[in-house]
Amino acid sequence: MADKPMIQLKNVTKVYDNGTVGLNKINLDIKKGDFVVIVGLSGAGKSTLMRSINRLHDITEGDIVINGESITNARGKALRLIRRNIGMIFQSFNLVKRSSVLRNVLTGRVAYYPTWKSTFNLFSKEDKQKAYEALQRVDMADKVYSRADELSGGQQQRVAIARVLTQNPKIILADEPTASLDPKTSRRVMHDLKMLNEEFGMTVVANLHSIELAREFGKRIIGIRAGEVVYDGAVENTPQEVFDAIYSGKTKEEINA
Ligand SMILES: Nc1ncnc2c1ncn2[C@@H]1O[C@H](COP(=O)(O)OP(=O)(O)OP(=O)(O)O)[C@@H](O)[C@H]1O
């Protein structure tokens, strides 16, 4: 029997309180180990999709299933356990700026501790070792005691990647991970995400604004427009004209013509 999907969206609709439809009846299965690139114009619903998957937003209708478990109505410990398997990478890095690189990376382990231990920073020796090794993987071990706000944007994003590696989730949601970075640094960060995908088998879902990066690093491309899926295909089978059409926000009919 085929593996169950790592992420499943079943008829998912998200309507914001002001009536804006963020997602409109989305159905998607994302398989384990995939590298999915989500593409669409500003306002298409990409961030809404990401935020719905780990339930930073509650959806209005439908169901989202993570590795066989519904996150839609999960509560308390069950929700925490599902979320532990979902790592986030943000455009703005989301590091604690005044803390050291090591402490930032160790926060990837917080979900594995009772609250009181993580509050008092009582991380085990093993976890400190894990954090250090993760920093080595992204070539940031020499900055382990630097303060996060002493680093460049690209370095901060690599620390965020080390944090997610230390968390050891099954899924990584990367919301415009390279939007604040120059082209060379962007490729470096994408290489690090590729490493998490290929060496650690993590399933990656990334919003990307760059066609070149989507083509080079994505395995599957999903186009979104007005909260709906307008294209879904393997990157290797998607011709350049179709890429251009998705990126320019064309309709489903125009893209698939
Ligand atoms: N908190 C909110 N309240 C009301 N409407 C919202 C909210 N967040 C997003 N929206 C609306 O939902 C739609 C989808 O927004 P979303 O942020 O998901 O788009 P996006 O594709 O990620 O855009 P961008 O590329 O600019 O980040 C837009 O019309 C947006 O204005």
TrEMBL record:
Residues 7-251 form the ABC transporter domain. SUPFAM superfamilies: P-loop containing nucleoside triphosphate hydrolases. GO terms for molecular function: ATP binding. Pfam families: ABC_tran (PF00005). Keywords: ATP-binding, Cell membrane, Membrane, Nucleotide-binding, Phosphonate transport, Translocase, Transport. InterPro entries: AAA+_ATPase, ABC_transporter-like_ATP-bd, ABC_transporter-like_CS, ABC_transpr_PhnC, MetN_ABC_transporter-like, P-loop_NTPase. It comes from the Bacteria. This is Phosphonate ABC transporter ATP-binding protein. It comes from Lactobacillus jensenii.
